[in-house]
Amino acid sequence: MLPQCLILQGVWFVTRLTSNACYEAVEDRNITAPGQVRADQIMRLSSVRGQAAYPEYLRRVHYRDPETAKEYVFLTSRLDLSALEVAALYKRRWQIELFCKWIKQNLKIKAFYGASKNAVLIQIWTALIAYLLLILLKLRSTVGSMPLT
């Protein structure tokens, strides 16, 4: 969970709730999309460890994806969003994680050498250019006489 200093700075999260999480529902909220949202609750972690990690109220959203029919239970510190917005944020978060996984696997970036936005972008662009050049050379070597221009 988030350290208290990050909470005070307004940092928030959307994540999946683990199946063994101990919590108590404080309030059931109105379900605005009955086909997709199974439950929308304000809750609090009830274990000693959970209370120590995050003593504030949280939002629990039980969501059913209409495309895959899979069910997910999300946990977020944002109480002001709709349940569908919470699900959409998690989906976008997952796309970012898949992109980072692709970068690690294909561009062979294990760590970033700089912390600034510019340093990270330069490293990604450099690795991407090298990756594309290697693909071009591989294609050229298999095709034979493919011109570079």
Q: How is this fold's topology laid out?
A:
Layout: H1 4-8, E1 14-16, E2 23-28, E3 37-45, H2 48-53, E4 58-64, E5 71-76, H3 83-106, H4 117-143
Antiparallel strand pairs: 1-5, 2-3, 3-4, 4-5
Describe this protein's structure:
With about 150 residues, this protein is an alpha+beta fold. It has 2 domains: about 5-95, no CATH class; about 105-145. Helix content is about 40%, strand content about 20%. The chain has 4 helices and 5 strands; from the N terminus they run H-E-E-E-H-E-E-H-H. It has helices at about 5-10, 50-55, 85-105, 115-145, and strands at about 15, 25-30, 35-45, 60-65, 70-75. Strands 1-5-4-3-2 form a 5-stranded antiparallel sheet. A hairpin with an 8-residue loop joins strand 2 and strand 3. The relative contact order is 0.11.
| Class by SSE composition | alpha+beta
Number of domains: 2
Mean pLDDT: 87
Which sequence of strands runs across the widest sheet? 1-5-4-3-2
Summarize the structure.
The chain has helices at 4-8, 48-53, 83-106, 117-143; strands at residues 14-16, 23-28, 37-45, 58-64, 71-76. By secondary structure, the chain is an alpha+beta fold.
